[in-house]
Structure formats: C-alpha cells, structure tokens
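User: Modeling request: complex.
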Amino acid sequence: AQSVTQLDSQVPVFEEAPVELRCNYSSSVSVYLFWYVQYPNQGLQLLLKYLSGSTLVKGINGFEAEFNKSQTSFHLRKPSVHISDTAEYFCAVSEYNNNDMRFGAGTRLTVKP
Amino acid sequence: DTAVSQTPKYLVTQMGNDKSIKCEQNLGHDTMYWYKQDSKKFLKIMFSYNNKELIINETVPNRFSPKSPDKAHLNLHINSLELGDSAVYFCASSPRAGGTDTQYFGPGTRLTVL
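Assistant: Request completed. Predicted assembly structure:
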C-alpha cells in the first residue's frame, strides 16, 4: 500500500519569504499526488494535484509543486507567502484504480509579520 | 449552496452513548468517504462508498457503522462511545471512485466524549 511522509511538522516563515513544504511518498505502482490545505476550523480544500504529464503543477493561491519520480517527492513551494497562508498543509497519494487516498501527517505553516 | 454538509458541527456526549453524524453532498458525486482526524491532525480514512456500495472498510472498531441510503448521503453511527473516539470526523465526496478525482470535504464534526 502507498504511504506519505511529510518531513516537517511545523514551518515558521516571515511574510513575503519563500517556502517549501516537503513530501515524500512510497508506492510500488503509478501514483497520483495531491496537496490539500486546511484553514483553522475548516475542512480540507485542494491546492493542486499531479495525475500525469508535466511534472511542474501549478495550483491556487500561487502555490506550485514538482513531481520527482526518481526521488519519490512532491514538494510544495510558494515564492512569497502571505499571512493568510497560515494553515495546515497535507500531502496525499493514491494509486492507479485504487480509491484509497493516504494522507501525510500534515505540516503546520505559520506566516509571521 | 454548501457542497458537502455535515450535522452536527459539534457533538459532546458521555461514554457509552450511541450517536450519529449525517453527511450530505449536492455535487452529484458517486463516491463518499468518512475520515477521522485526531488531535495531532493525522487524517485517516475509515470508509468509502461508491453508488451506495461499501468499497473501503479500514480497520475500525465494529462500533462504527456507516450507512448510505442514497448516493447523496453517507451517515456514520457510533455505538458505545469511548474516550478514544474523540476526534474531528470529516465527510468527503468525489465524482467517481478510482483515485484521480479531487475529494471535496465537509466542514467536520468535532466529537468530544466525556
């Protein structure tokens, strides 16, 4: 079965700084990769996803992620963060023809003024 | 219009009680899910239904019983509640089963067992 590791549980950054949230996955078959964001007291919403094709995926709110098959990674980046980006970010992986999506433990991004 | 709704938003109850959480989606999706998020924010799938049929049944106590009366609704009934059941429960839906579709999450139900 597939699994996901988010290497940082907390990432504090200053406003307008760049940020990278790291995600590594494990699977023996083709995968689909997702990043979701959870704002306080809300459900998760999709930021972006990789299904196939270009390995650089652009999402909402200026976020992007790059699929690296050789390193089994799908790191999330933003060149300049805002206070409003403060949230919990979840990386998730599913496998071809498998409805079971596995989530990482989450990374708490805190943007400070 | 709320895409995926859950009721109640908060649920506080005593150990040993039986409670239900309801979920409805108005997106016309075929597939629905229940997730449990613990106090450390770890999100774990519990069940998934596709067109009212159970397709994922993770290792959860049999005190938890999902029920899908139609493909727009997926309810979760919990018998004999325990302290460890305290968590936030999220319902989600996706257009189809199969792993490629975005999942749309409800706002969550915070269950506190005293």
